[in-house]
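User: Before I run my own analysis I want an independent prediction to cross-check against. Here's the chain; please return only the structure tokens and, at the end, one sentence I can use as a sanity check.
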Amino acid sequence: MFLEQVTETKSIISTLEKYISIKEQIDFLTHKLDALKPEIMQMIPDQGKIVINGNSVSLAERKTWSYSKTVEDSEDMLRRLKKIEEIDGTAAVKSTIKYIVVR
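Assistant: Structure tokens:
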């Protein structure tokens, strides 16, 4: 019984260490990828693309908007109303998502 618990604990530790290691690699590679983006953005002409090894690389853009005080106040009121319904039970839980947190 004790040996099984030790083996299970070692397996859990090994799996968690693999997960953390992969997460660290992803973070490292994401940082490297982000560092290349400004250089690549300079290489691609507007409305153009570069095809390399079967991959098409192009520029895209996304706009952000600033809204009037009326809209901002309405959004604030909506957030408050949603919170009230969550607290008083009027709102129903649509789904619950579990995720892993590593700090």
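Sanity check: The mean pLDDT is 94.
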